[in-house]
Design brief:
globular, 3-stranded antiparallel beta sheet, 4-stranded antiparallel beta sheet, Immunoglobulin-like, 2 domains, mainly beta
Length: about 130
């Protein structure tokens, strides 16, 4: 079950439930957590949701991004240079679950190699972008 993300709700105290996404960890048995905390696993999503498609790549002017979000929430898109400096950043609030598409203008950046980071409620997606 490697690569899965679990949505766990703790029903010990129904007035203040713990409602969170927990990344799969092979060293931690989520079944024991469920039995110990009397929780219910409500949703399991494949890590295919943590994939970003970038085209064209190499790109001279505009990069098209396609990715999936498993749950609604904020999405942050960052483009970092080889020194780790954020060269572009966009925050999208309250993005719905499902297929997403965005554009990133890079024609004002110097030629080089950049790292794209797309942070969703369930993880961080990485892709290398070449800007000739």
């Amino acid at each position: 079950m490697s690569g899965y993300v679990y949505h766990i709700i703790d029903v010990r105290n129904s007035t203040d439930p713990i409602n969170r996404w927990v990344p799969f960890n092979p060293k931690f048995e989520h079944t024991k957590l469920a039995a110990t905390l009397r929780t219910q696993v409500l949703f399991a999503a494949s890590d295919k949701a943590l994939d970003v498609q970038v085209y064209p790549n190499p790109a001279a002017d505009v990069v098209e991004l396609q990715y999936e979000t498993v749950v609604p929430g904020d999405v942050t898109i960052k483009l970092l240079d080889t020194q780790g400096v954020v060269r572009k950043q966009a925050v999208k609030e309250d993005v719905g679950a499902g297929a997403q598409q965005d554009q990133l203008l890079i024609n004002d950046l110097p030629m080089g190699v950049y790292e794209l980071q797309v942070t969703t409620p369930t993880g961080v997606l990485h892709e290398t972008i070449f800007h000739p």
